[in-house]
Amino acid sequence: MKLNTLITLGALALTACAPVSEVSRAAPVADVNRVLNYAGIETRLLDGDLVQFVVKMTGEPVPTDVSNYAECAAAQYSLIRGYGFARHVRTNVENKGGQWLGDAVYTISAALPRGLKTIDAEVIVQNCLEDKIPMV
Asked: How far is it, in rounded angstroms, from Cα 94 to Cα 92?
């Protein structure tokens, strides 16, 4: 093998071993031609710090758009209630007759909660403002 080929193969092997960082929220799909209509948020306090968010969208959203809308609602709600963090419990997304529905549950807390799917409410709210996603 040529030296250049060995160096390239070595670089590829090192790249494959690099750690992958986890992002707390998926980036919006960059398609300026898609129509996204944010059709409302319902907030339900289930128990103490457990909150359900039901969001509705029409237009041409993908499931990630619906999940992001619910996450924005959870982040803003956390700040309104005087908390700085939330932990994602679950999100169900479905399309019923052209209307997308998201049913998400989060716990809210003053301190960073345990778990893998935690969000810093202030950071997410800022992202939502930049992405023009409405909140509660």
From this structure: 7
Supply angle C-alpha 95, 101, 102, rounded to 5.
125
pLDDT at 24: 44
CA-CA distance, 90 to 77, in Å (whole number)? 17
CA-based angle 92:110:112, to the nearest 5?
Answer: 70
Judge contact between 104 and 90, C-beta under 8 A.
yes
The single-letter DSSP state of residue 134 is -
Task: Single out the residue of 61, 114, 60, 63 nearest to residue 87, CA to CA.
Answer: 114
Nearest alpha-carbon partner for 107 in 53, 27, 26: 53
Give the mean pLDDT of the chain: 83
Residue 62 burial by Cβ neighbours in a 10 Å radius (0-12, 13-18, 19+): middle
Per-residue pLDDT tens over the stretch 96-132:
999 999 999 999 999 998 888 999 999 999 999 999 9
